[in-house]
Predict the 3D structure of the following.
Amino acid sequence: MSRPTLPEPVKIISSVFSGNTDILNKAIAVLPERLGKIDYVSALLPFAYTDYYARESGSYLTRRFISFETLVPPDTLPDIKLFTNRVEEKFLKDGNRLVNIDPGYLSLAHLILATGKAYTHRPYIREGIYADLTLIFVDHTFRRVEWSYPDYADEDTIVMFNNIRERYASQLARKRVQKIT
């Protein structure tokens, strides 16, 4: 018989992309109001793996990956996704999103993204939000799974997430020490 245990808190991460760098940065600036202090911001990266968003957001998109200092229970992921959806709505123009915010979380074992799109590998959480297992941590590194988005499976992106995971592991270790003392 397995005994239920509460999971460790997780680290919020997000991809934020737009065809307008000013809007991208303004959207990022709103996120700490609810998600806490940002502790990592990537360089401005081209979003070039798909043209899926071109009609809605423009053909030359750039992105930043970010992570947040505050650790949260994993079951808050739907709340985070619903919040980022509201932020996206602040930047609508003629019904089109000018910014796309894809939140998720990183744990020691995996990286999960939140989505409103159901699919075979996306278990339902609640309030119309699904969990998308995007990367798994095996043999000292994050690794892609069959359905990983190509940009998340990119070698440089995996190195970045490995570095964020190291920061997260240090945060967990400090938290455990604080509990003991």
